[in-house]
Structures are given as C-alpha cells and as structure tokens.
Amino acid sequence: MFKAFQMTQNNRILSLFSIRYPIIQAGMIWCSGWKLAAAVSNAGGLGIIGAGSMYPDVLEEHIRKCKTATNKPFAVNVPLLYPQTDELIEIILREKVPIVFTSAGNPAKYTSVLKSHGLIVVHVIANSKFALKSAEAGVDAVVAEGFEAGGHNGYEETTTMTLIPMIREVVKIPVIAAGGIATGRQMLAAFALGAEAVQIGSAFAVAEESSAHPAFKKMIVEAGDGATALMMKKLVPVRLLKNKFYEQVKEAELKGADSDTLKAILGRGRAKKGMFEGDTEEGELEIGQVAALIHGIRPAAEILNEIISEFESARNILVGLSLKNL
User: How far apart are CA 126 and CA 143, in angstroms?
Assistant: First the structure.
C-alpha cells in the first residue's frame, strides 16, 4: 500500500523533512499540542505544535513531551505577531526542534537566525509578494494558504485553486498547499496544481488527540455548507464558524465598525473561550470551509491513512483517464 510515495525520488518535501507521507498537520491554536503533533508524526506525516496559543513555559513543556512521544521529526509553528516571539524562538533553539513554520509576519526576521542553527524553516504565505520575500529570506519551503482556510487568512481572498499555481510560477522552492484540503482527492488536486505536499488543519482539529474542546469538535462535525465566513477584515481576516459571536461581529461590520470597535468586540481570550473551553456561542470558533466534509472524530493516524488511501485510489483512476473516453 502507498507505493507511490515510497518510490518517489523527486518529492523534495519528503526528503527535506525526512517523513514518509507529504502531509503536514497545521499548527492550529488551541488544537495542536504535543499529543496531536506526535500522533501525526508517528503516522508518517509531519506533526506541528501550534505555539500561537502558548506561553514560553507551556511551549517548552509541549516540546519535551513531544520528544518523549515520538522519535520522528516534528515542527513548531510560530506566528510572528505576538510579543513573546523572541522567547519562543529561544526555546525552540535550546530544545533543538528540527523544523519551524513561521507565519503572520516578515519571513526575514528570524529565518537567518534559525537556519544558522541548522533548522529547516518554512513560512506561510497567501500571495506572490510574500512568497518572493520568503524565498529571498532563505526559507526552505512555503505554505501557500488559500482563502478557504480556517483561522487567520489572506486579505486578497485568493482561493487555493488559483493560489498554488500562481505561487508555483514565482518561486523555485517547494510549495505546500493549504486551505480547503481534508481528503485524498483534494490532496491529489493540490499536487496537480504544483504542490509537493499539503498542510491540513480542519481535518486534524477534530482528531481524538486534538486539544480542541469536545463541543467545538462536535460543532465542526455537524457543520454544513456555508457554516463558515471570513470576518474581521479590518483587523486580520479570520474564518469562523457562525455562532452568536459571529452574528455580533457581522452586525457591527454591516454598521461600518472600525478596527477599534472590532477589537473591543473581540476582547481577550475569545478563541480560547470557544475552541479550548467549549463556549460555542460566545467563543471565536476558527475552522475552514472544508468542515462541511468532516463527519467524525477519529484518531489522527486513521485520518491520515484514509487521506493517503483515497489519494492513491483517485490517482489510479486518473492514470487511466483519457479525453477520448469521456
């Protein structure tokens, strides 16, 4: 089973990360602690600890527990918009984490420091401008994240279908596709567009090992078509499940609320309240459009293996496809 990846010699992501399958679990706040990261890495993908919701001492604890739980490569995602970023970077260097994914900031700020210590660096982007900046900064790969993604998103609202080939045109480094990918068929489509791996968030947010609250997981599984929307574009665009908090933001935006008003509505700890503590009405519930295709809570390894199996089945169907036979 899964011979395609075992036989592939030119997939740069497999070589770069020393992983079996080109599936990266996204570094999601309040969802991706050491248990999820270790489970994905043990299953052959690349697990990521999401440092965006962690104080430095908490990140240190998660890294050490992840080292105990897996002997496979894993990574840490560091959003660059938080005030304690320097401390997080120091811990990553001290703990000798092999791979770092940076996001939400200037890729040049930490890339040279991380690479000088021998780390592999990947930056998350949503447009060509930052893809080029990332390549110039010396990152080893980029995650091209389309508008369908959950959480923080690009202002351009470029869909994954358009973004991946667009980024593939302007950079020579490997491109990892993200945004709206939860199945093997979607993964195959991303490869057809020029990606060499996929980063998957929403599908792993409901994994048994995810630290997301059970009530949040249940809401994701029950989400249907149109259950999410991109909001708060005057701050940082974020894709949310529709709930009471979403309605409050929507009403304010329709009335022309400025960024200060939206900050006041958002307050502090809103994402923790929803995603980690389970307040599905007043909390901020970040998830992707692909939630409508997620139908159950299962172990991370089972989710990953199903994606790979479906990828192989879909690939085999396409191998025999001919326009003459349509």
Answer: 8
Residues 90 and 107 in one domain: yes
What's the pLDDT score for residue 37? Answer: 98
In a domain? residue 219: no
Domain-embedded: residue 136: yes
Q: What pLDDT was estimated at residue 48?
A: 98
What ranges in the chain are assigned the alpha helix state H?
Answer: 3-7, 12-17, 34-42, 56-69, 85-94, 108-116, 128-137, 160-170, 184-192, 202-205, 214-222, 244-254, 259-266, 270-271, 300-319
CB 188, CB 150: distance < 8 Å = no
Query: 0.85 cut: is pTM over it?
Result: yes
Same domain, yes or no: 244 and 132: no
Q: Which residues contact 305 (CB under 8 A, 6 or more apart)?
A: 43
- List pLDDT tens digits, range 205-245: 999 999 999 999 999 999 999 999 999 888 888 999 999 99
Q: Do the bridges between strand 74-79 and strand 47-50 make them parallel or antiparallel, or are there none, so unpaired?
A: parallel
Task: Examine residue 325 and state whether it is found in any structural domain, yes or no.
Answer: no
Residues 183 and 300 grouped into a single domain: yes
The region, left, alpha or beta by phi > 0 then psi within -120 to 50, assigned to residue 27 is beta
Q: For the chain, how many structural domains are there in total?
A: 2
SS3 156: coil
Arithmetic mean of pLDDT over the chain: 93
239 and 300 fall within a common domain: no
Whether residues 59 and 182 fall in one domain: yes
